[in-house]
């Protein structure tokens, strides 16, 4: 599996054998990244793929000195699981 950033559409994709199996959607405004959606195809759930997508977005936010609003419930869960990532919370 590979994570791919599609900057022009504000998405992170999880791709397995050239097939998209997961997606995270975000928007950035005034140096604040809002994670609005994270989803993985049902067959691949339970493999921490959505978690990896959220963590990739958090790394991106940190690298750009952005704050993060976890509007998606799963993104909120990732921040609960990884307290060390909370420094970027808006």
TrEMBL record:
InterPro entries per the UniProt record, alphabetical: Acyl_CoA_acyltransferase, Gcn5-rel_NAT, GNAT_dom, GNAT_YJDJ
The name of this protein is N-acetyltransferase
| Organism per entry | Sphingobacterium micropteri
Q: What is the lineage of its organism?
A: Bacteria, Pseudomonadati, Bacteroidota, Sphingobacteriia, Sphingobacteriales
Q: Which domain of life is it from?
A: Bacteria
Q: Where is the N-acetyltransferase domain?
A: 1-90, 4-90
């Amino acid at each position: 599996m590979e994570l791919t950033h599609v900057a022009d559409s504000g998405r992170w994709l999880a791709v397995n054998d050239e097939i998209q199996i997961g997606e995270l959607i975000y928007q950035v405004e005034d140096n604040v990244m809002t994670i609005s959606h994270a989803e993985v195809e049902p067959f691949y759930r339970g493999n921490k793929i959505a978690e990896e997508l959220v963590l990739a977005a958090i790394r991106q936010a940190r690298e750009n000195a952005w704050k993060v609003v976890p509007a998606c419930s799963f993104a909120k869960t990732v921040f609960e699981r990884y307290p060390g990532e909370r420094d970027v919370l808006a």
